[in-house]
Specification:
By secondary structure, the protein is an alpha+beta fold. It is 30% helix and 12% strand.
């Protein structure tokens, strides 16, 4: 939907064909129209569970929209942070609206950056079930990896450092 800020008129894009939508897109100017859209895969979501007592109580997750689903799903490695046990816990979801808020979500509040409680330094996330099992399988004497599998594992482990140019050639 597109809303004209001056008149308050709303145009629903679902009722228009592709040519009409393209014509409207060419008329968009900065500051005069508001474009509404649905949540899309890859969008940052700020998730928290009350009470929000410390910084990791609200973390940014990368959204993955599943068709015809109406529930929040998350990896259980994040459950300790939220003190969630999946017995009917309710959580709040906030969708950042600006590019600055998106950047803050991905760079400051992302789940993979919240490992310790800020006040005590105790770990929030750690080795749990599948991490331990996969570690046992990977270090077994009868486990042999191809060069491609090994390179993929090294890249996954060092991805953040590579993307921030903090590591040279591997």
């Amino acid at each position: 939907m597109i809303e004209d800020e001056e008149t308050g008129q709303q145009i629903h894009l679902a009722a228009l064909d592709a040519e009409q939508r393209e014509g409207l897109a060419k008329l968009l100017t900065v500051g005069r129209k508001v474009v509404y859209r649905h949540l899309a895969t890859g969008d940052p979501l700020l998730v928290n569970r009350q009470p929000t007592l410390h910084k990791p109580s609200i973390m940014a997750h990368r959204c993955r929209v599943l068709p015809k689903e109406q529930t929040i799903r998350m990896h259980y490695a994040n459950c300790n942070t939220y003190n969630a046990d999946f017995d009917g816990d309710e959580m709040n979801i906030h969708l950042p609206q600006s590019y600055q808020a998106h950047s803050e979500a991905f760079n400051l509040m992302a789940t993979h950056k919240q490992y310790c409680v800020p006040t005590s330094g105790k770990p929030l996330r750690g080795l749990i079930q599948d991490s331990v099992v996969s570690g046992v399988f990977m270090t077994g004497k009868d486990t042999f990896l191809t060069k491609e599998q090994y390179n993929q594992l090294v890249y996954i482990g060092l991805r953040e450092l590579i993307e921030m140019d903090k590591i040279g050639k591997i």
